[in-house]
Design brief:
This protein has about 70 residues and is of the alpha+beta class. Helices cover about 25% and strands about 35% of the residues. The model has no long low-confidence stretch (mean pLDDT about 95).
Length: about 70
Amino acid sequence: IVFVEVKSQEKPTSFLPADRVNKEKLHRIKQTAQAWLFKHKKDELPWRIDIISVSLNFETRKAKIIHFRNIEA
């Protein structure tokens, strides 16, 4: 099971949108994922947290997408 956090930004910066997922945010995602797994009786299954970073450029009508897999909290 994969829990995914998607972050996007419209204006180019020196940071990726995924950089906005700090340690505290990642901890909350992990807690939410564990609660969902327990509630749905899936806590024995393997799972991970991924982050999708999307940088949008409306001038060129393109997006830069980076997929970070198995992020540790």
